[in-house]
C-alpha cells in the first residue's frame, strides 16, 4: 500500500502527464512495467531510450521523467503505467 505522501505525489504526476494523444502500445507499457518492478526506473528509462526515433520513445520517456521528478516508488510507477491510457484519455 502506498503512503499518503506517495499518493499525493502520484496525483501530481498524473496531473502533469495529463491528457495527451498517447501512442504507446499495450505491449510496450507491459514490458516497461515489468522492467520498473524488476530492475527499477533507470532500467526502464534505458529501455525507453532504445525505442529511438519513435513516438513511443518520446511519450514513454516523458512519463518516466515525470514519475522520477515526483519521486514515485517502483510500485507507484507501475500503477501509473497500468492506468496510462485512462490518464492520457483525460478521463482520470
Summarize model confidence as the mean pLDDT: 86
Large-scale geometry: globular
> In percent terms, what proportion of residues is strand?
under 5%
Estimated radius of gyration: 12 Å
The count of helical stretches stands at 6
Number of strands: 0
Order of helices and strands: HHHHHH
Biggest sheet character = none
Query: In terms of structural class, how would the helical and strand content be classed?
Result: mainly alpha
State the share of residues found in helices, binned by percent. over 70%
Distance between the termini: 20 Å
Ranges where pLDDT stays below 50 over 5 or more residues in a row are none
What's the gist of this structure?
With 92 residues, the protein is an all-alpha fold. It has helices at residues 4-17, 26-39, 41-49, 55-69, 74-82, 84-89.
How is this structure best described in words?
With 92 residues, this protein is mainly alpha-helical. Helices cover 73% and strands 0% of the residues. The protein has 6 helices and no strands. Helix 2 (26-39) runs antiparallel to helix 5 (74-82). The longest helix has 15 residues, at 55-69. The protein is globular. The two termini are 20 Å apart.
Amino acid at each position: 500500500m502506498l503512503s499518503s505522501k506517495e499518493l499525493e505525489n502520484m496525483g501530481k504526476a498524473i496531473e502533469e502527464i495529463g491528457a495527451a494523444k498517447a501512442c504507446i502500445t499495450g505491449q510496450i507499457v507491459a514490458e516497461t512495467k515489468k522492467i520498473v518492478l524488476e530492475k527499477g526506473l533507470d532500467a526502464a528509462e534505458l529501455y525507453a531510450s532504445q525505442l529511438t526515433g519513435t513516438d513511443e520513445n518520446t511519450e514513454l520517456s516523458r512519463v518516466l521523467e515525470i514519475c522520477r521528478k515526483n519521486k514515485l516508488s517502483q510500485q507507484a510507477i507501475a500503477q501509473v503505467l497500468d492506468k496510462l491510457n485512462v490518464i492520457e484519455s483525460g478521463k482520470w
